[in-house]
Amino acid sequence: MSLSTQVEAFIAYLHSERRYSVHTVSNYNRDLRRVVAYCEASGVTTWKDLHTPQLRQALSEFHRRGLGSRSLHRLLSTVRRFYEYLLRERVVYENPANGVRAPKMTKRLPATMDVDQAKQLLDSPVEDEELEIRDQAIAELFYTSGMRLSELAGLDLTHLDLSEGLARVLGKGGKERLVPVGGQARKALQDWLQARASLAGAGEPAVFVSLRGTRLSRRSIQVRLRQWAQKKGFSGRLYPHLFRHSCASHLLESSGDLRAVQELLGHADISTTQIYTHLNFQHLAEVYDKAHPRARKRKSD
Q1: Distance CA 278, CA 228 (A)
Q2: How many CB atoms lie within 10 A of CB 203?
Q3: Residue-level pLDDT at 155
Q4: Catalytic site residue 237?
Q5: Catalytic residue list contains 276
């Protein structure tokens, strides 16, 4: 089998058996196509012929072409996962990615709103119009639950239990989890479900629908959130993950319960959640610098 054919088999495996999201599968495919192009240009014709030194050279070449450390880490992880698949299929007998380290990656802290910003944005008056009511419910649900964009877009009516204040979401890798729906979000959703009745097509299961009566796409949710925020006078750029990061940061700031935040966000590894402890410390440092009498030198010193 050719290099590309085995990549196609792997991509099909991720999609059909592992049930990875379209976005994740697209990233795997793009990374592996980049490696295939490098192999073909270097005379490597089978995956057994790609060894650790060549993979190191490939990463160096990609870095010279402008690929950043974050992208290189993801690419190396993709290759490692791909070779695990090839080992399982007995196509190769070693994983060349195991002996390679990508360049050191600088941690970028995610952007968040502060509590007052979120409150001011969500407490703004809501017009009595179907799309305005829907967009308010979307924003409230993002902030109350920390859902990913794909999770909210895929939400069906049967996934909501507003009497209990819960929503069942399908996360990465097809893993289900329950997330809380707070009081304000429940009220916004109840208002939307009443308005939805005049828009949704017969038998449409999606919670959030468009003017056409069909499920609202992820792209449409992103666009509508931006427009909604501009209308509310929000000065920054509003996007779904800003709500997710803000939800996690504010919850951790109040409770200090890292495990609970991990469970809420659906992180498989707590190390992913730990970035919010950095945000929490950053906030603490800012408060300390402003408030503590001995934090900074006096101007007269």
Answers
A1: 30
A2: 5
A3: 95
A4: no
A5: yes
